[in-house]
From TrEMBL:
Gene3D superfamilies: Chloramphenicol acetyltransferase-like domain
Name of this protein: Uncharacterized protein
Region (Disordered), start-end ranges: 1-21
Source species: Polytolypa hystricis (strain UAMH7299)
């Protein structure tokens, strides 16, 4: 019996003759203003009218986790990407979730471009002439990448590594069970941190309020672990038009993932809050290097075509590292290296890294709410530290 030929789709979209939808949408209507959804909620008060996280169906928002081949993707009729709208009285919040494929960036790019124009009151300067998605990354064919090249902060795991990781995961889950919780960080406290940061940093450096909040969580959430315990923050950033050969409207999800430099607990303890926040912010600097982004695009694009997006690189620290991840969404719709300096944050949604999740919600008033799934020890230590911070604020 002849073998059935399985076409190798170069883009992760259903073929033109398929009935599978290319995208799915969901809409929540809120009669109040948008800040009822994303603003800081004082301790003891009611939850927001709409909890953004509860509106997201992980099976829909993360279809790549449920499939292994493009055939299975099509057979399960999973959408390419998901748009979630929160329609409030004063504004509309759009959240976008898509797979590991940069091709989805075309649609995301148009949304963000329109958002930027609306935010800044600018008319559309031009209608972007986007190429065919199937040829969008053809320029990567001319980019040479050494076979031994890897992204900084990333490693390739062996079968033995996976086994050790699974064993440690079971051990940690038993001895350090995670519980959901939240901690409130007032605008006054973040202002205090930022004031201290300006004094400590050189004139040509800066950190955002979001950097400071994430640094605080990273600094105090795992202080009960040994000094040599490695910690790393696994983050994600979507950069529009970073490579000169990509149209401005394209957001690539192949050049997104990065980690902060792996640090031991002792190193984190010895760093000031400002120094740690600067480390987090500077983690994105590599994405300003056109050569680096070109290599990442080339490697990812080739891997996607070869094995349909199978994962073979993991953040350094995946093994026995206490790491958590975030995906930062700025007012323009997606994270930007400028946010906190030229852009203000509306909300940061959760990116789950199996064991830890951190959701940082920043209201336009400047208050923060940190939601996470952490061990009880971590919550107790952060509560103690927060009382210390409040006392320092009064001095």
């Amino acid at each position: 019996m002849p073998a059935v030929h399985q076409p190798q789709y170069e883009v992760h979209v259903p073929p033109s003759d398929s009935d599978v939808p290319a995208a799915s949408t969901s809409v929540c209507e809120v009669v109040k203003n948008l800040d009822s959804v994303v603003s800081h909620i004082p301790s003891g008060t009611l939850d927001p009218v709409v909890d953004i996280m509860s509106a997201c169906d992980p099976k829909v928002l993360n279809p790549r986790t449920a499939i292994s081949t493009i055939g299975e993707y099509i057979n399960k009729a999973l959408p390419l990407f998901h748009l979630h709208f929160v329609l409030a009285a004063d504004a509309t919040l759009i959240s976008v979730s898509w797979g590991h494929v940069a091709m989805d960036g075309l649609g995301c790019g148009h949304i963000v471009t329109a958002w930027e124009e609306e935010l800044n009151g600018l008319p559309a300067a031009a209608i972007y002439d986007d190429p065919d998605p199937a040829t969008l990354f053809d320029f990567t064919n001319d980019i040479y990448v050494d076979p031994k090249w890897t992204r900084p902060g990333w490693i390739r795991l062996t079968t033995w590594d996976f086994a050790k990781f699974f064993a440690f995961y079971l051990y940690e889950s038993y001895w350090y069970p995670r519980v959901d919780g939240q901690i409130f960080i007032t605008k006054a406290l973040v202002d205090h941190w930022q004031k201290n940061a300006k004094k400590e940093l050189p004139a040509n450096e800066w950190v955002s309020r979001n950097d400071l909040v994430l640094a605080w969580a990273m600094k105090y959430a795992w202080t009960y672990f040994p000094e040599n315990e490695i910690l790393v923050m696994f983050n994600s950033i979507c950069l529009r038009g970073r490579h000169p050969q990509l149209p401005q409207s394209v957001i690539t999800n192949t050049a997104t993932s990065y980690t902060t430099p792996p640090l031991t607990n002792l190193e984190i303890r010895n760093k000031s809050l400002t120094q740690l926040a600067l480390t987090i912010r500077q983690s994105v600097n590599v994405f300003t290097d056109t050569d680096y982004v070109g290599k990442v695009l080339a490697v990812e694009h080739r891997r996607v075509k070869a094995n349909n997006g199978g994962i073979d690189w993991f953040p350094m620290g995946s093994l026995k590292a206490q790491h958590f991840g975030t995906v930062s969404w700025a007012k323009i719709g997606l994270s930007s290296v400028k946010f906190g300096k030229e852009l203000s944050t509306v909300a940061t949604t959760t990116y789950s890294t199996r064991r830890q999740c951190a959701t940082v919600i920043d209201s336009e008033e400047g208050d923060f709410r940190l939601e996470a799934k952490l061990p009880t020890q971590a919550w107790k230590l952060m509560q103690v530290q927060m009382e210390i911070e409040k006392q320092n604020l009064k001095v």
